[in-house]
TrEMBL record:
Entry-linked NCBIfam families: trnsprt_adja_43
Protein name stated in the entry: Uncharacterized protein
Positions of transmembrane segments: 6-29
Keyword Transmembrane helix (UniProt): yes
InterPro entries the UniProt entry points to: Trnsprt_adja_ssu-like (IPR049820)
Length: 43
């Protein structure tokens, strides 16, 4: 594997992880806000 490809591979993973965490966090916040409005527990 050439150094450029390896560098891009290593640099892309943090971006992928950050995107997934952002999507999960946004979904959790929506569920939490909806449960709070309806007066019910999350669990």
């Amino acid at each position: 594997m050439n150094p450029t490809a390896l560098t891009l591979y290593v640099l892309i993973w943090p971006a992928v992880v950050a995107a997934v965490l952002f999507i999960i966090g946004r979904a959790f916040a929506r569920e939490w806000a909806e449960a709070r409005r309806e007066g019910r527990d999350l669990v």
